[in-house]
Amino acid sequence: MRLGGVIKNISYSFSANLISLLISVFMVMFVPKLLSVNDYGLWQLFLFYFSYLGFLHFGWEDGIYLRYAGKSFKELNPRTFAGQFYSIIFLQFVLVLVVSLFGYMFVSDPDKKLALVCAICLAPFVNFNNLCNFIMQITNRIKEYAKLLVTERVIFFAGVLFFLVILGRNEFRYMYSAQVFAVVSMAAAGVYLCRGLLVPRFDSIASIRHEAYENISVGSKLMLANIAGMLIIGIIRYGISMGWDVATFGKVSLTLGVSNFLMVFINSVSVVFFPIVKRMDEGKRSEVYTVIRNALTFLLFAGLIGYYPARYILSLWLPKYADSLVYMSVLFPVCVFESKVTLLINTYLKSMRREFLMLEINAMSVVFSLIVTIFTVGIWHSLDATVFSIVLVYAFRCVLAEYHVTKLLGLDLRKNILEDLLMCGIFIISGWLFDSFLCMAVYGAAYLVFMLVHRRSLQRIIGMVRV
Known about the structure:
This protein is mainly alpha-helical. It has 20 helices and no strands.
């Protein structure tokens, strides 16, 4: 793909994610203020369950993503894809019945039961939308992918404004209604964009079954790696939901959501970045990795400075959450580690078809997450220690993953990794111990020293951007 096409695709994805970011800012700034603490906690618990719906295809859609990446939309066989579409949707409705029955029988807490059932009922729409998104990405229809993403977020935003602001219905059920309307609307848009693959003319049952088997066998490793990646934080968040009340869960989720704002920009680039790395000459991968890593490090450490004004503004705007905003200083570095894994490390591992290595890394991180959760929640029952464990687990995964990918590329970046950990440590300690002005001065001085030490690398990056 030409550079102009790459930049255009990145701009589409970036614009869509920027709109999503602005809506997320509104959600963080206004929704906690409009909802009661309990209703906001219930909403966060619903979103927690909702985030796992995309795995209920068991790798089916991931296999399609890996097997058909790089093909044009016209090259996709409509009979083959129609069989896969309708089979996946049928599976989702079966799972809705099974999980709903499980929730009513075995979940005693009424809030947790409500959040679980509300989430699972959206599974057919969510996984249909995910498959449409994958098809747009693998066929390089990034503009259409951006339209799907924007459709869902804008309609959800309009629904929230209508129910909470105009009608004044400040309850969880109205937030959920806005989410349902948005997901269904996105499905309607997906039907239109993928209409050529949805005509109900299928191959034989044996052919559908064989195609499904091929997709699941290929995609299951990637799906399990992704599930393990989500479980790293999911286990800790679940521990918080079990060890403390819904209101506390909501407060911690708020600070984690603010800390992850920078990930929106990272995701907008990673959507386009994967096929570029996959087609890259193997001899250039090591050099490109180093350049991108250095540029990303400068940007991410600069982005941490946004913590100081964000915490001050949020403490004034959301005084009932002020006691939990101190955790932002601990959770902000999560975006540093997660951004490197998402944009750089996982992209390289997937391009080298090392999905099983991704699974191993994430599985080890899940075990580590489970161990620290048992200690911090079950034994110590310390919320502070539990929140600190979040960044500890993400740092563990990032270091472990980068060790493996640099080994594959023949690079030695141990010094750089130690510098990253030191910078994040300075940020966390200064933010935890000092007030906003003093901690900003301490971290700002550390970042200035970091740039001076790596000034040659910074000059090289600036020179490449100018060219």
